[in-house]
Amino acid sequence: MPRPAAPFLGFARLLRHHAFAIAPEQVTSFMQAATLLGPRSMNDIREAALATLAPSPDRRNEFEAHFRAHFYGDAKPPIEGEEEDETRVKDDRGAREEQNQIVREEKGGELSSALEQLSSRDFQREADGLGQFRRKLASALPPRRSFRTARTRSRGALDLRRSLREIVSADGDIASPLLRRRQAVSRKLLLLIDVSGSMKLHTADYLKLAHAAVQGADRAEVFTFGTRLTRVTSALRIRDREQALARAAALVDDWDGGTRMGPTLLAFLSVPRFCAFARGACVVILSDGLERGSHAELEIAMRRFSARAFRLSLASPLAGDPRFRPATSALGAILPMLDDLVDGSSLRSLTDFILSLAHPAPAASVVWKRIS
């Protein structure tokens, strides 16, 4: 790429880093528009950027601030009306994101928090017996009837078109009717992993489980959430686990930070492409369910997940304690919407549960009512 084009590409990357929806075709159009205009002044570049990159009206001031910061070297001024608690969505569709190298120390992770803290994470290879789980997963997930059909010798519907062709080719004689029936395929598996500070001791194991799930299932999607929402599926498609987890660790910015469980789940449901992943899927949320403040948004999100998913499960490490009861207001509010509330404190319990998703079980509210 010519050196004069680097600032234009860098500006598009800057906007993407701040969650502007910029398609590759828009970047190409921006550089072509700047070439067509000369440009004779910085105002020509600004007008080309506005016309091709098309920021939404509510983010116009933020766009102008980024433009001046990038091309003029100004410090980014505070954006009026910008909410500090806005949940950001990060999708790993191949775009390279700058890795945040600032690592902050945290004294404890026992309590959930709404404060955002950005850090990185390093994973090491360990022997954990996930190979057997990976091999069994594809056949263990609940099946569903596909709209695609396949030929069959019995227990199917008449394949009229194929039967008529056979009759014509056999001069009006056909030995037996030809049948087709709908194929059975495995349901999607959606894993939503809490990476907040209160889950610090378990996130490494959860990411290893997620890598085995992506490698073993026909269709599996993995997202992390804390103060932000990040899709890490493509990183976990790398066959080598060490490389896959290193790539995922670089994508996630909110390791060991605060918890915004309700807002991040609602952010997931607000993106149509993400919401489609949950439709008819086995959704497993790996979290302790500790929500700071009001749980109204969490309750709304779980109700929407329950309406879309084939089976909605919450795997909490707190449930590994025999004394655990879903007594918090947040867990009490979402318990009627859950199909399962299970132990998520170990890889063994999680793999056994996921491999049993095809078997029916009593609703979570019924199970915990008996225990209580």
Automatic annotation (TrEMBL):
Residues 74-112 are annotated as: Disordered. PANTHER family: BLL5662 PROTEIN, BLL5662 PROTEIN-RELATED. This is VWA domain-containing protein. It comes from the Bacteria. Gene3D superfamilies: von Willebrand factor, type A domain. InterPro entries: UCP010256, Uncharacterised_CoxE, vWFA_dom_sf. Residues 87-109 have a biased composition (Basic and acidic residues). It comes from Mesorhizobium argentiipisi. It holds the Pfam family VWA_CoxE.
